[in-house]
Design brief:
Residues 39-144 form the Pirin N-terminal domain. Belongs to the pirin family. This is Quercetin 2,3-dioxygenase. There is one protein chain. The protein is mainly β. The chain has a single domain (11-268), classed as Jelly Rolls (Sandwich). It has one helix and 30 strands. The chain has one helix spanning 286-298, and strands spanning 11-13, 22-25, 28-31, 39-44, 55-65, 73-79, 82-90, 93-97, 102-105, 110-114, 119-124, 128-129, 132-133, 137-146, 157-161, 166-169, 172-183, 186-189, 198-205, 210-214, 220-227, 230-232, 235-237, 242-245, 251-256, 261-268, 275-278, 281-283, 300-302, 308-310. Strands 2, 16, 17, 18, 19, 20, 21, 22, 23, 24, 25 and 26 form a twelve-stranded antiparallel β-sheet that branches. It has a seven-stranded antiparallel β-sheet with strand order 3-4-5-14-7-10-15, with no helix packed on it. Strands 6-11-8-9 form a four-stranded antiparallel β-sheet, with no helix packed on it.
Length: 348
């Protein structure tokens, strides 16, 4: 999904300081594309904490009634330096991109796009699903991970995984969509390709149930609660919030109170590189972001009626061309007037 903010800030993302217990990160509402557009609840990045491992972006949306609306409509737009992770609780999204992918994703399935040096894509609620009206509800999360310096300019690619590992045990269901997680003496390993040590998993608990997760003590973790009466360790986590734990724990306990819980676990080895993020671009310097914006602008042309289209030959340019979406590509917003430098780590 694009960050459709019309005036996005340039974010300097760096590991935050460690905390002793569970740190609660509240979400903020962000209207994508304006006050009448789809609103998401964003927990990272924020001033308090901008990264959890390589996870640099977490938008939580829905449940939205899309039975009588256009649903999600995100026109073609560019990315660099990241992976996009599309994960649904309900509904259906159709993905198209400039490397030729055309793939629907459903709940329990993973769409994983690696931007590398540059890619463009669109996402939309399809008009029909298998010849029937599309599902009436759209609900899920859109996540990004930072690509490390060694591969951030690699060739773009796309993966879809419909068969992901899952375990059901004592009222708990855990499905891993990225990385590796050990639950109830079973090691769940996602087949999706990652470039840093990390984990992503959906956790569903019946009322009164709990699950013990055997986690990598090197990792920091965040638990995003979608719904229900949830606790991480001994701390209550309200729906929409993300609970953070620093490295050093070999086990995490997630429990449900009087109502069932659905949550997403994000974790990873603390990301040590300097990162600058603006709009849909993740880089290392302000100049890299400026260059990516200019390269995208060079692929677009204004139409006489005020719309936007791809320039002839755009398919051979940095971000390629997305075909099949009923509308033109997004024009990038104006860059901020302030030039930011990545925050330096102690001793660097």
């Amino acid at each position: 999904m694009s960050n459709l903010e019309t005036r996005p800030d340039e974010q300097v993302c760096a590991p935050g300081s460690a905390v002793g217990g569970v740190e609660l990160l509240e979400a903020r509402d962000v209207p994508l594309g304006g006050p009448r557009a789809m609103t998401v609840r964003r927990t990272i990045p924020q001033r308090q904490r901008s990264l959890i491992g390589a996870w640099c972006f977490c938008d939580h949306y829905g449940p939205d009634d899309v039975s009588s609306s256009a649903g999600m409509q995100v026109p073609p737009h560019p990315h660099i330096g990241l992976q996009t992770v599309s994960w649904l609780f309900a509904g259906e999204i159709l993905h198209r991109d400039s490397v030729g992918s055309w793939q629907t994703v459903l709940p329990g399935e993973l769409n994983l796009m690696t931007a590398g040096h540059g890619i463009s894509h669109s996402e939309e609620s399809p008009a029909t699903s298998a010849g029937r009206p599309r599902p009436p509800t759209l609900h899920g999360v859109q996540l990004w991970t930072v690509l490390p310096l060694a591969v951030k300019d690699s060739a773009p690619s796309f993966e879809h995984h419909a068969d992901l590992p899952v375990v059901v045990h004592d009222g708990a269901r855990v499905q891993v969509f990225l990385g590796t997680l050990r639950v109830a003496d079973e090691e769940l390993v996602s087949p999706a390709r990652t470039y840093t040590p990390l984990v992503g998993a959906q956790i569903d608990l019946e009322a009164g149930a709990s699950v013990v997760l055997d986690v990598d003590p090197v990792f920091e973790h965040g638990l995003l609660v979608d719904d229900g009466d949830a606790r991480l360790e001994t701390d209550a986590v309200p729906p929409g919030a993300l609970a953070y734990t620093a490295p050093g724990r070999a086990r995490l306990t997630v429990a449900a109170g009087e109502s069932p819980v659905r949550a997403v676990l994000l974790g990873g080895e603390p990301f040590a590189e300097d990162v600058v993020m603006w709009w849909n671009f993740v880089g290392r310097t302000h100049e890299e972001i400026v260059r990516a914006r200019a390269d995208w602008a060079a692929q677009l042309t204004d139409l006489d009626d005020g719309g936007t289209d791809f320039e002839p030959g755009a398919g051979e340019r940095r971000f390629g061309r997305v075909d099949g979406y009923a509308g033109g590509p997004l024009r990038a917003p104006a860059l901020p007037e302030v030039r930011l430098r990545p925050r330096r780590r102690p001793g660097s």
